[in-house]
Amino acid sequence: MKKNLLLLLFACNISFAQDLSKQLREFDTYVDNARKEWQTPGLAVAVVKDGKIIFKKGYGVREIGTTNLVDTQTIFACASTTKALTAVCMGMLVDEGKVNWNDPVSKYLPDFKLYDVNVTRELKIRDLFIHNSGVGNADFLWGVMDVSSEEVLKKMELVRPSYSMRSSFIYQNIFYLVAGKVIENVSGQKWEQFIVNRIFKPLGMNRTFSQLANVKGNNQSKPHYFYNNAIRTITPSSPDKIGPAGSVYSCVDDISLWMQCMLDSSKYNGGRLLKPATWTEMFKPQILVPASEFYPTMQLIKPNWMTYGLGWFQHDYKGKKINYHTGSLAGEVAIHAQLPDSKLGVYVFGNYDHAEVRHALVYKTFDLFALGGNRDWSKDFLKLYGDIKAQGEKAEKDFEAKQVANTKTSLPLSAYEGKYTDKLYGEAEVKIIDGSLKITTNNFLTATVQHWHFDTFRGDYEKGWYGKALVQFFLNAKGEVEKLEFEGMGFVRHKK
Q: Which regions of the chain carry the CATH code 2.40.128.600?
């Protein structure tokens, strides 16, 4: 009887291994085909199941036009999937009794101020992680100006709130930088060193970097963007100024170790990063995410709810809870997703701007290795985003159709030259170059624009993948150029 039972268990194990091997072959083929469908130059994918890394592989090339293949050691941008790592860093300090999630931020950063003094006073450590402060997106502070992290934080006092504190949700990167400063002040280590010492080294993530500036070696992916009718390599956008929000760079060999740790209540090699209660807090829903903040993919997933934890989005899928977060920089993408009930996780790196094949691979992973179903998510998401692209192209044509013909500028072109300033947005300089206006903001963002109509100008950004720039000048009662608006930023003409 005992012998027969052992034989039965052995047979079951063989059958399970055969089934998994078949699933992995199917997944491998699916990933490769999906990458080609989405025209993504390179991908790297890892899957963790029941505590084991069951799949990791690179696809395509690190740079288009080369034969430099992606492998499991190729470095990619983690981008905003960094946020979960930063939340764990803070959780460690909570475990040590040095911080409490509900402590006021001012206790640790007394000089940090926001536009509303009441929000400055009431802002809690927890609020830094869940995008509910009332301050809307302020990425212009690092995306269109070359200033230090300290200057970014200082300028937050000038950013007007977009909604009442804790009344809603608007995605906000800058507060993760604030969290990093709290970690620095409490621990005595800069965030970029703390995360190396407390997460990367213990987990054996020896090919993971806390900042783009520290990335070493030639096996690095290059960012890509579609512009001028072709997929092209572009200059990397450095997130180092807001490091805790998105500056980690890694490879699937390393990131799979992080995935294992997070799926197994933060355990690793006989130790653990967080106490069980703090790990649970990471994934506890903290705030409802309104439909206006949903990813377009949710149009097909159709979740009943979406929430945000401490560095994680969450929603339901086939009756199960999913934890996930995307990461996006110009020309680079990532996604980390978990199906906790099945102890299943997937991570996808890509080197093409908003390559939403990443979402397709997440749901394919969950269907194939846990929940069942054979929907072709790549095909369906490709159509969804194709329709969105078509809508964008139509909107562009509709805008161009509104151009008023045969108008002239109010003044000679030379009257628009000069420097324009704003306490929040910095400085914009306008010069005449070969009959066009060249506008440069903060010695960082540059566009060359031509007369569009009236006192509005339109033209190309120096970095072509940014698309078209629109600049509008405004005159005062004396008929003099008084201010300009560019990229949603307003500048007043500097008086000599």
A: 413-493
